[in-house]
Amino acid sequence: MPLFDETKYFIPLMLIPWLFAIIKDKKNRWQLAILIPLVIILVDQSGLFIKKTILRPRPWAGLDANIVNHLVGEKGRNYSFPSNHAANMAGLATVFSSIYNRFRTIFWVTAGVVMLSRVYIGVHYPSDVIAGCILGSVYGLLVVQGWYLFKKRYQNQL
Q1: Predicted local distance difference test score (pLDDT) of residue 20
Q2: Is the pLDDT of residue 73 over 80?
Q3: Rg value, the chain, Cα
Q4: Cα gap 143→58, rounded to integer Å
Q5: Digit-coded pLDDT (tens) for 111-154
Q6: CB distance 87 to 43 below 8 Å
Q7: Per-position b or e across 108-140, b if 16+ CB within 10 A of its CB
Q8: Cβ neighbours of residue 36 under 8 Å, at least 6 residues apart?
């Protein structure tokens, strides 16, 4: 579970399927190339804004050390709410599921494991993860719906 905390392991988990799909799937190439970075930027920036506004202490900083399973470094002491890992994974799962519906279970199970890891390693409360999941899902749905509206409106011109 601590592997999901490290950026060097977490970023490839998000990027490899995206790059593979852009290279192999000519039909959905532009949709993937636009929506995935867009959802990540929106989620990250919104999550960071909320974190800096709320300043909720992480479980390892706000609870008794004997009841928290803290397995990683002590960074972002007051940036617990919401979980950007959960938000990013939910946003990615939403976008990928809209394009590759038959693999939605794989996308959401992967997102679920990452979300669970955030609580397990003691860096987020369950409510942080739930809020992150909602934030990412909402942005994912918004960018997907925006894409469909754009495509419908400008289909004849493309």
Answers
A1: 84
A2: no
A3: 17
A4: 30
A5: 999 899 888 888 899 999 999 999 999 999 999 999 999 988 87
A6: yes
A7: bebbbebbebbbebbbbbeebbebbbebbbbbb
A8: 18, 92, 95
pLDDT digit string, tens, across residues 44-71 = 999 999 999 999 988 876 666 666 665 5
* CA 49 to mean position of chain CA atoms: 15
Q: Where are the domains of the chain?
A: 2-154
For residue 82, the tally of other CB atoms under 10 A from its CB is: 27
DSSP output for 102-141: GGHHHHHHHHHHHHHHHHHTTS--HHHHHHHHHHHHHHHH
CA gap 97, 55 in Å, rounded: 32
CA atoms lying within 13 Å on the CB side of residue 47 = 31
Distances (CA, A) of 41 to 68, 75, 91, 120, 152: 31, 21, 10, 26, 24
Determine contact, residues 141/94, Cβ cutoff 8 Å.
yes
What share of the chain has pLDDT > 90, as a percent? 53
Q: Sign of the C-alpha dihedral, residues 17, 11, 144, 35?
A: negative
